[in-house]
Amino acid sequence: MTNFFASRKGIISVGLVIGALAALLQYLGNPGNMGICVACFERDIAGAVGLHRAGVVQYMRPEIIGFVLGSLGAALVGKDFRPRAGSAPIVRFVLGVFAMIGALVFLGCPWRAILRLAGGDLNALLGLAGLIVGIGIGTLFFRQGYNLGRSQKTYASVGLIMPLVMAGFLVLMFLYPQVAEEPKSGVLFYSLKGPGAMHAPLIISLAVGLLVGILAQRSRFCTMGAFRDLILFKQVHLLSGVVALLVAAFAVNLVLGQFNMGFAGQPVAHTQGLWNFMGMVLAGLCFALAGGCPGRQLFMAGEGDGDAAVFVLGMIVGAGFAHNFGLASSPKGVGPHGIAAVFIGLAVCLFIGFTMRKKAA
Amino acid sequence: MSEIVDARGLSCPQPVLDTLAKIAAMGSGELEVLVDTEASKENVARAAQGKGWKVESITEDGGEYRLKLLGS
Fold it and tell me: Buried (b) or exposed (e) across A234-246, using 16+ Cβ within 10 A?
């Protein structure tokens, strides 16, 4: 009955495996310090289906598909598939949108922030500091009774929708595979240059995604929860997994010659420290209010949580906004409207945090 | 009679928050916590043990868990 992955050794093993695999995916073709990045990869998926037309970030990332399907498989085998929904889905959608916008001002989700640090990108220190501050603000709301309300048990099909969407994406990939030198194959867009053109072989990306999905579902690996539990409960359980991820990715990067320390000239990164910080304050606050980092939201969506699935859709649509409206950063720096979007996002989060509180029990 | 925390349908970290608040209010005694996900079950058990409480029993019924916690 005991779940090894729920133990300290379990979560550390999972962190080590994810860190090592992420560094390896970069070696096999994924972009720099982006072996795995949930925000970036969901952004690439948004591009692949044409929700934005930023030509350099369009690719149907099989890792994301694998995360959801691997989690579904693990949940079914572990009798842990719990179809549920109905806990303020519209709020979760909006939090997903602004989580993505914040992450794209920094250029990475928390996983990538850690991977960037493990690759020597010191700009990530500011992103991680922002992430912790954002989560810290979230814990203040939790202490004040903030709560998105109860979900309800529901039909299995509700919990299967997001896995089916992902399976559909995979079918599209097989129907319309990448054609050399072609920006489009069937209905899917493919990047010819930039990060979207850099990827490990499809089957390897998918296999790693499935494995990570299984491990993370069993262990409840969550980078936001790591810092939230530390701040809120002084618990280091999830944090030990995050530290393991950092250590493993750092070690494999050293072995593969992927470690390069500094601020300037880092891959898919900019050096505007304040906005690296503020982007992740916004993202961290959104993750905290929604109860999971982007990776965890995918795993929960795989185990039947229809509200987490709505958050995921919010992130994908948010990526469309971010690139269509000039909110996303580039290696040159923040986008023309990125700073305004961060402030709007923070205002929306404060509105949600202050108004969605049950009366003190 | 034991106190009850009904954390069914609540997402992370609410079940743990509610459990710890109750444990702090009670100091000692018997507390039952109702949750409906594996993750919440594990988190509540871990948090209670972190406060020196014992997980007396965990019973499952139709995908829901009832954790009996004892604090002395």
Answer: ebebbbbbbbbbb
Q: Residue B1: pLDDT band by 50, 70, 90 thresholds? A: low
Those of residues 60-79 in A touching chain B at CB distance below 8 A are 78
Residue B32 phi/psi, 5° resolution?
-110, 135
Q: Is the dihedral of CA B45, B13, A110, A123 positive or negative?
A: negative
Distance CA B41, CA B35 (A): 6
What are the C-alpha distances in Å from A339 to residues A80, A132, A239, A332, A346?
41, 19, 30, 14, 11
Give tens-digit pLDDT for A338-350.
999 999 999 999 9
Q: What is the mean pLDDT of residues A101-117?
A: 98
Instruction: Choose among A3, A150, A291: nearest Cβ to B12.
Output: A291
- The interface pTM score, or ipTM, of the predicted complex is 0.93
* The pLDDT value given to residue B59: 96
Two structure tokens written together for B14: 């609410």
Structure token pair of residue A44: 């690439």
Chain A CB contacts of B16 below 8 Å? 233
Across the interface, which of B13, B37, B46 has its CB nearest the CB of A232? B13
Mutate to test the interface with B, among A91, A150, A219, A296 (most CBs of B within 10 A): A150
Question: What digits encode the pLDDT tens for the residues A5-40?
Answer: 989 999 999 999 999 999 999 999 999 999 999 999
Pick from A130, A144, A297: nearest CA to A213: A297
**Rg of chain B, C-alpha, whole Å:** 11
pLDDT bracket for residue A359 (50, 70, 90): low
Query: Hey, which residues does A357 pair with through a beta bridge?
Result: A146
A181 is written with which tokens?
A: 């030198």
A83 in contact with B at a CB cutoff of 8 Å? no
Distance (Å) from the alpha carbon of B6 to chain A's nearest alpha carbon: 11
- Which has the closest alpha carbon to A297: A318, A279, A276? A318
User: What is residue A146's DSSP assignment?
Assistant: B
CB of A185 closer than 8 Å to CB of A109? no
pLDDT, position B53: 97
- pLDDT of A1 strictly over 60: no
pLDDT tens, residue by residue, B4-54: 999 999 998 999 999 999 999 999 999 999 999 999 999 999 999 999 999
Choose the closest CB to B10 out of A82, A150, A235.
A150
Angle formed at CA A330 by CA A289 and CA A37, multiple of 5 degrees? 50
Rg of chain A over all Cα atoms, to the nearest angstrom = 19
